[in-house]
Structure prediction request, 452 residues.
Amino acid sequence: MAISQSSQQNDAARQTELHPLGGEPGKPKKSGWVWAIVLIVLVAGGYYYYKSRPSADSKAAPAPGARAAALGPVSVAVATALKQNIPYFLTGLGTVSAFNTVTVKSRVDGELKKVNFKEGQFVHEGDLLAEIDPRPFQVALEQMEGQLARDQALLNNARVDFKRYDQLAKEGVISSQQADTQNAAVGQQEGALRSDQAQIDNEKLQLIYCRITAPLTGRVGLRLVDQGNMIHATDPNGLVVITQVQPIAVLFTLPEDNLPEVIQHMKNQELGVDAYSRDDETKLATGKLLTVDNQIDPTTGTVRFKAAFENRDLSLWPNQFVNIRLMLSIRKDAIVVPLAAIQRGTQGSYVFTVKGGKANMQPVKVDLTQGNIALIASGVSAGDQVVVDGQERLQGGTPVEVHDASPSGPGGGSGGGQGNGPGKSPGGNAPAPGKNSDKPGASKNKAQGKQS
Prediction:
């Protein structure tokens, strides 16, 4: 019995541990309420933060105009819009080509006895370049002259015999057939005499060919055969190459879209062509347009043009690459501003002008762009100050602090706000007519004088 009571006591104690009485079951319920309160506090705090953030932002970030006023005027670079005569031209890549190129060759075989030119020398048409040993041809000439004398004597004798035969035939002493045969002999001797004379003329011509002269005026290249060598008329290389570099030609290409415009201008006037160096900085020569090729290259969509240059200072050299500007017309009294001043938006092109210390957004119509300048059709007048640097910080009515565009700044030159002289363009970087006014772009084969 004692054993059973202890087991009952153990079971009761075990049930007491599993199911606490009184205040013990309330502990987990109290902990749940605590977590619920914490969650409610977090949600309330998040809601308060969400509601209070817009008002804080609005207090920290004022309106654009108020912010600009609070931060002070914006420093910008300006240039002055000018009224100038601007050349309208198309640009393309060109290759200098000699107007004429001649490989001087010998027309007879013989020993090269004398060379009368220096490499790189300028020669004129008819100047003696080289001499071939003439003695073999002189001997041949004397032989033919001797044969001519012999045939001349035979002809004279045949003519005398014919007179005799003709007289005897008239008297009936001989038949007329014999007189006719003698007359034919006279004709044979006359033919032989003419053949001898032709051979003599040929030998004289060979003697003339022994003296090699310049076929045109030009510059002599490197000598290809040295004195003392045997040369032949069939030699492929010849003696020397002469190129005509005064005048000289340039072949260049333009897009086929420009062809109608160029042809229209060619009908009215002779078009000028300027050649610039490969870096497009130095003007090398001025010439004129000669002709247009008779077909368009279908692989590139371009047309070839040929221009002629006097090249008096030898600034152009055969096979030299140059940048070409084909002058079409002069835009007189055009309003020009630096290209950096032009901005583009959803409403079209516009610029920021400065008046009364504030920036004003001014819509403009761009006529065309030429290099780093833009021709304005409407929207800007001569003397207006346009912003060329700092536009990204501007809005209409923003106070500004003005300074002139520096040569290294976006305006491209100094003196923009002072008003440039006739020899300068807005910002000072775009040269006036006759000077370099554009830089090599990504595609030099496209005309930059296109309408915007």
